User: Fold this.
Amino acid sequence: MNPVTNLSADEIPKQWYNAIPDLPGVLPAIKDPDDGFSRIELGKKIRPKVLTDQDNLEESWIDIPDEVLEKYLQVGRPTPLQRAENLEKYFDTPAKIYFKREDVLPCGSFKLNTSLAQAYYSKREGFDTLVTETGAGQWGVAVCMSAKQFGMDAKVFMARTSYRHKPYCATMMKVFNGEVYESPSSITEAGSKLLKEDSEHPGSIGTGISDAIETASKNLGRFAYVSGSNLPHVLLHQTIIGLETKKQLDKLSITPNALVACVGGGSNLGGFFLPFLKEKIAKKSDLQFMATESESVPRLTEGKYQYDFGDPAALTPLMKSYTLGHEFVPPKIHIGGLRQHSGSPIVGFMRHKKILDALAFSQSEVFEAGQLFLQHEGILPAPESCHAIRGAIQLALDAKEKNEPKNIVFCLSGSGWLDLNSYKKVLF
Ligand SMILES: *Cc1c(COP(=O)(O)O)cnc(C)c1O
Assistant:
């Protein structure tokens, strides 16, 4: 059997899926604190209007603009669905393990699915520069590439630890002519304040958000602030992943028993799982949704379900999700990505409604899973994706113990070629 299932260009989904109307209850709204400073209004000024509208949609299906579809095809969508036959044999499991190959996109991750859309909308509304934050760097690279594709400039605030541990990501952004700053940044007020408290502040996605929002708000109308995760419009664009996967599983006549994804802000998970939400809720099958995260940043397994800001300077609105607190900084030894203190309200709500399971793994377990995947399948996964692989292995071992022929599908969210330094640090 051919282990790879492809879709042709004309089979690419033409619409994104908005899951909010199909959630089991009313999603808690994004809101402002009571201090008189409206972050929601600020957000409307620094983002293309259509993106704010897409956070509050009532319709379930949204046409993908032709210009974005064209870019999706140019970057290699639809991506393949592949079976990990060698890994199955190695574990001697009756389970079948499939993975969706978002690692084959240029820039090495699924992030282009939304950065291309956000760049297109920003350009259409007259902005000339994209401003954003990045944690591990893949989002920054995707934004710099997308800006170039639509003739725009890009400015990226990158968490200082990642900037130092993953110099090649910053280099790649610069090759796209993007401007990259270490975060916390001395060119912003928010950044300078954090640097005064700790001149070696390691930075985080949160500090980058503070830097980027402040920069965009000082250049209204020219700089569009774009987000790589958390917000409903990001998950909306990412549903292309799950919609393609569904078509591919249908071609194989396979009903999945478990979907597995790693979770940082929750966008690859949301984009991959949400197109399967209706059948999960209708209980037509025993479909399990499994989120995997790091023991160092255990927001879904140990965080609290409550309103919180997305950044330490409290410039974002309040969103309800599982959080470790907006001043949380991951331990310095943590180099496996997935560093966010909180995340997507949709993903948090699914967890709260008990339709999302979660497992946390240690850094060594995660990188060892990546090493096994490379050895058996010949594909080098991003450290974030190794969390999903570790989760899929766990489910395959459970299936072996119970002798159940389960179909397990995970999202291979990205490639690890720019992360070899992290592999070296953890494994050797
Ligand atoms: C950004 C990223 C993630 C985590 O982000 P989510 O928004 O949680 O999906 C996971 N894997 C890779 C390769 C990434 O680049």
User: Anything to note?
Assistant: The mean pLDDT is 95.
